[in-house]
Amino acid sequence: MAAGQAARQGADVTVLEKMDAPCRKVRITGKGRCNLTNTAELPDFIERFGPNGRFLRQAFARFFAEDLVAFFGELGVSIDAERGGRVFPASERAQDIADALETCAAGCGVEIATQVAVKRLSICEGKVQGVRIAERQSALAGPDCRADAVIIATGGLSYPATGSTGDGYRLAKQAGHTIIPTRPALVPLVTAGKTAQRLQGLSLRNVKVKVLIDGKKRTEKFGEMLFTHFGLSGPIILTVSNMVVDALTRHQRVEISIDLKPALDEQKLDARLLRDLAASGKREFHTLLKELLPKKLIPVCIDQTKIDEMTKGHQLTAVERRRLRDWLKDFRLTVTDHRSFNQAIITAGGVDLREVDPRTMASRLVDGLYFAGEVLDLDGETGGYNLQAAFSTGWLAGRAAASGDLV
Questions:
Q1: Is 376:364 a contact under the CB 8 Å cutoff?
Q2: DSSP labels, 37-88
């Protein structure tokens, strides 16, 4: 995006791509479908990035979701919006987005040099002069690539097999920039014991998840989650994972509390249980649970509530009924770790935003140096927010770099 926009402004642009082809990460986003943006209104969109979201106001004011949809429409890619405002190519093929970006850049005259790794920035008297590549590679004439402007758009550390191995942080640091400590974000969580393993593959919809840190509720989310062989994943788990990762880094105790019946408060749930027990009092407890829980959850419920599965409904004591009610509203798992960058959707941390001009994405420390995308200290929720931020900052950085100023 940055290269194409710079070329559209008349600049002579070369993309230095260390992998054998560009857009490799784009091709795997959204499980191969590419959730490229969201239909959320601007204030809500910015809020999904937390306190750092303010930085994106200028970029979003210039190039936002409707502009992105129009951009791809002009390139022949139809777009559809789905549940939760998530926006995908109508073909459901991330490849179409990658192809469109490459076609746009090539059509504007951008040269894409693949298998070219950048070793360092060339900086003289506070101004970028170009870059030095690792060795003579591809069709480039030599180790020095001269340029009036350099845009660092290398991504973060997530999915390193696509080429995101932190090169941008190294280059930014060389230029004197502060790097906010990086950590996995939108990442699955590892839980203690074998409970999650017993429930592997079970997806829960319309549940509420609370994050408890040192016993205190810090946040809650409603939606869908998934049990895996190692712990927890799914949209709402990924959304709260950033807070969890930070708490684990501080060696705090983290628990996930799952409300399996969020539509009912404790009083209404208790009333429902009483009705069910009265109507089916002769049925055994494990059979009664079929009306309340997915099949996989029943043995876990029996184990954790310590209620004999053969107990008749009318034999359940008031204490046992309350124990069941409390478990349904507060099914807990202890979080012990998180998965690695190999499974993290994005990277939290990155180039300190205080050192970047939000109007142009230009470095405040080195003239002619610009940043775009995940290399910046920006991380939003799942749902298309992060790709929109990447496209918007890339659009702005490309145009500003080509003109030497905001256009």
A1: no
A2: EE---HHHHHHTTGGGGGGGHHHHHHS-HHHHHHHHHHTT--EEE-GGGEEE
In terms of C-beta density within 10 A (0-12 exposed, 13-18 middle, 19 or more buried), how is residue 85 classed?
Answer: middle
3-state secondary structure of 179: strand
Rounded Cα distance, 65 and 49, in Å = 15
User: Do 122 and 132 touch, CB atoms closer than 8 A?
Assistant: yes
pTM (two decimals): 0.92
Domain ranges of the chain: 2-183+349-403, 188-339
If one counts every other C-beta atom within 10 angstroms of the C-beta of residue 287, the result is 15
Helix (H) or strand (E) holding 328: helix 318-329
Q: CATH number for 2-183+349-403: choose from 3.30.70.270, 3.20.20.70, 1.10.10.10, 3.50.50.60.
A: 3.50.50.60
Q: Are 302 and 311 in contact (CB under 8 A)?
A: no
pLDDT tens digits for range 97-115: 999 999 999 999 999 999 9
Q: What is the DSSP letter of 360?
A: T
Q: Which residue type, as a one-letter code, is found at position 133?
A: I
What is the per-residue pLDDT across 129-181, written as a single tens digit (0 to 9) for each? Answer: 999 997 655 556 568 899 999 999 999 999 999 999 999 999 999 999 999 99
Tell me the three state secondary structure of residue 104.
helix
